[in-house]
Write a structure and sequence with these properties.
The complex is a heterodimer of chains A (262) and B (309).
Chain A (H helix, E strand, L loop, with lengths): L13 E12 L2 E12 L3 E5 L6 H8 L9 E9 L2 E2 L7 H7 E4 L11 H10 L8 H11 L3 H4 L12 H14 L4 E5 L7 H14 L4 E5 L3 H7 L2 E6 L2 E7 H6 L4 H7 L5
Parallel strand pairs in A: 3-8, 3-9, 6-7, 7-8
Antiparallel strand pairs in A: 1-2, 1-4, 4-5, 9-10
Chain B lengths: L1 H13 L3 H9 L3 H39 L5 H5 L13 H32 L3 H15 L2 H16 L4 H26 L2 H9 L4 H29 L3 H4 L19 H9 L4 H36 L1
Helix pairs in contact in B: 3-13, 5-6, 5-8, 5-10, 5-12, 6-8, 7-8, 8-10, 9-10, 10-13, 12-13
Classes of the chains: A alpha/beta (262), B mainly alpha (309).
């Protein structure tokens, strides 16, 4: 799947420009001076050993990091020429533009499949007139429609793990974000469900910018266009996935992708 | 060479007395026998204590059923009390009064208790939450008669009358800590992934707390509500100063109102056999209502736990 003809990430139109980003948990300095460009409409994988700051980085992109007590961020994250950490930016509104899919599928247990798809809209006071069309279209988009179209009013938690995760992706798509953050989205799924979700990502990246944290290097190699390697709070290297896995510039990256540590 | 010989030697010495070790395992010494005897003693002590706990409960139940059930009839719930010497009649005023008081207490206490629980669990994390939790605990430990006196001072005296409203307020104050505490504990049981899923969809914090977290915990909170109601249904002391009593059916909130506990107190301390019988029947009804509320709460908890796993 690796595309060998991709240009370096800095040569593509960037969806997100990260400048000197630092993240803290209380006194702990979790991310150090991260500067990076996330290319538009590509899938960028973030890899690195546990505790390297990859999830923290992801959570800085939709300002979920600051919800942790004592957490703090400095630096700039620019989307559409606006620094999302600008005082005038409302994090709640930002999160409708930057969706997030979590490690464990988390459909709302009190809601039906249909209500789950529409949750992001209805909870924000939007009652779309074409709700049925949105539900159908969004579920088709995540290849779930034919499986659930006759049981839209069943509980979202009645589905299998893989179906639940696709439902959660549909829930994000319904809000019409431009960026989707994926926090180890397949690590709770079996290989078949994982393969289906990965196919879905390959389609979604035609319309959305995807940023995926994964601890599975094969997955990063399979599905991503670009890969960022984080180590101990530093961004070691961000390049095309092919180069990261075959010919990285930094020896630390090579040691990691060849499995010598981590 | 020599060191090897030494280690070999010491090895063989340490493994030498296997027969000793085996005999040690097979034959209990005195200390061990004493330890086993003590263990049996402690187990027996626990068993006896458990029985001692159950005896009063069972005997109260049996005694109340025995004394109260014979007086049970439809009249008990539909007729007003009769004067001394006149047979028949019921305690409809007290039954309706207790329901009214529970209604007022719930209308005031449930919203405050639940919202306080939401605040402590979801919003005011840290010192403010600790402070509120501490005061709620203190409040739940305040003797109910003190709460009655307090409501007497702040409501009954200015209104110049005992009233159903004052009674409901005093019961609400007793109910709030229970409800707040249960709400808080159940909200904490809601997985943080659901909170995050909602926040990441761009749903504001307060909507997340109410429509996702509170809604998910709702069946369990209903349990807390039931326990809160069960707790106040039998309260007597605060009502003596607030709702007082009323021999007639009353639907006015600004007038004194009867209640089962106060009526039981009045009748049980009277010298008349018919009244004493009514007190027993009243106690029987009250215990059963509380028992049923507890059972509903218990079933609700089981469903909640089953659903979460």
């Amino acid at each position: 799947m690796m595309q060998s003809n991709l240009p370096a990430p800095s040569q593509l139109p960037a969806r997100i420009v990260v400048e000197d980003l630092n993240a803290y948990f209380g006194g702990a300095h979790a991310l150090h001076h991260i500067t990076a460009q996330i290319p538009d409409k590509k899938l960028t994988a973030i890899i690195g050993p546990s505790g390297c700051g990859k999830s923290t980085f992801l959570r800085c992109l939709n300002r979920m990091h600051e919800l942790v007590a004592g957490a703090r961020v400095s630096g700039r994250v620019v989307m559409d020429d606006i620094d999302i950490y600008d005082k005038r930016v409302d994090p709640v509104r930002l999160r409708r533009r930057v969706g997030m899919v979590f490690q464990k599928p988390n459909p709302f247990p009190t809601m039906s499949i249909r209500e789950n798809v529409l949750a992001g809209l209805t909870l924000n006071g939007i009652r779309p007139k074409d709700a049925d069309a949105i539900v159908q279209h969004t579920l088709e988009r995540v290849a779930l429609w034919t499986e659930v179209k006759d049981k839209l009013h069943n509980s979202g938690t009645s589905l299998s793990g893989g179906q639940q995760q696709r439902l959660c992706i549909a829930r994000v798509l319904a809000v019409q974000p431009s960026v989707i953050l994926l926090d180890e989205p397949c690590s709770a799924l079996d290989p078949i469900a994982t393969a289906r979700i990965e196919e879905l990502f390959a389609e979604l990246k035609n319309e959305y910018t995807l940023v995926m944290v994964t601890h599975n290097m094969q997955q990063a190699a399979r599905v991503s266009d670009y890969t960022a390697f984080f180590y101990m709070g530093d961004l070691v290297e961000l390049d095309t996935t092919q180069r990261i896995f075959t010919n990285p510039k930094v020896s630390k990256t090579e040691e990691y992708v060849t499995g010598r540590f981590g | 060479m020599t060191t090897e010989a030494i280690t070999l030697d010491s090895h063989s010495q340490s493994t030498k007395p296997p027969s000793d070790a085996a005999s040690h395992l097979l034959h209990a010494d005195f200390g061990e026998r004493r330890r086993k005897w003590f263990s049996h003693f402690v187990v027996a002590l626990c068993g006896v204590s458990a029985v001692v706990v159950l005896v009063p409960l069972a005997s109260i139940f049996l005694y109340i059923i025995n004394k109260g059930a014979p007086g049970l009839s439809l009249d008990f719930f539909t007729k007003l009390p009769t004067p001394v010497g006149v047979a028949g009649g019921g305690l409809s005023n007290a039954v309706l009064g207790t329901l009214t008081l529970i209604g007022i207490a719930s209308a005031i206490g449930l919203p405050i208790g639940i919202l306080a629980g939401v605040y402590v669990a979801e919003v005011g994390k840290g010192r403010v939450a600790d402070l509120i939790r501490f005061f709620a605990e203190v409040l739940s430990g305040v003797p109910s008669i003190t709460i009655g006196v307090f409501v007497y001072a702040v409501l009954v005296v200015p209104m110049k009358t005992f009233s159903a409203f004052a009674g409901g307020v005093s019961l609400a104050i007793i109910m709030i800590p229970t409800v707040a505490r249960t709400t808080e504990e159940l909200l904490r049981m809601v997985p943080s992934q659901l909170r995050e899923a909602s926040l990441a969809l761009g749903v504001p914090q307060w909507k997340t707390s109410i429509f996702i977290v509170l809604r998910t915990a709702a069946p369990g909170i209903l349990t807390g509500v039931m326990l809160g109601i069960a707790r106040i249904a039998g309260e007597t002391a605060p009502l003596l100063f607030t709702a007082f009593n009323n021999r007639f059916l009353s639907t006015r909130l600004d007038q004194p109102i009867a209640s089962l506990p106060v009526q039981i107190l009045t009748y049980a301390t009277s010298p008349y056999a018919e009244w004493q019988q009514k007190a027993w029947t009243g106690a029987f009804v009250l215990v059963f209502v509380i028992l049923i509320l507890n059972l509903i709460a218990r079933l609700g908890t089981r469903r909640q736990v089953g659903g979460a796993s």
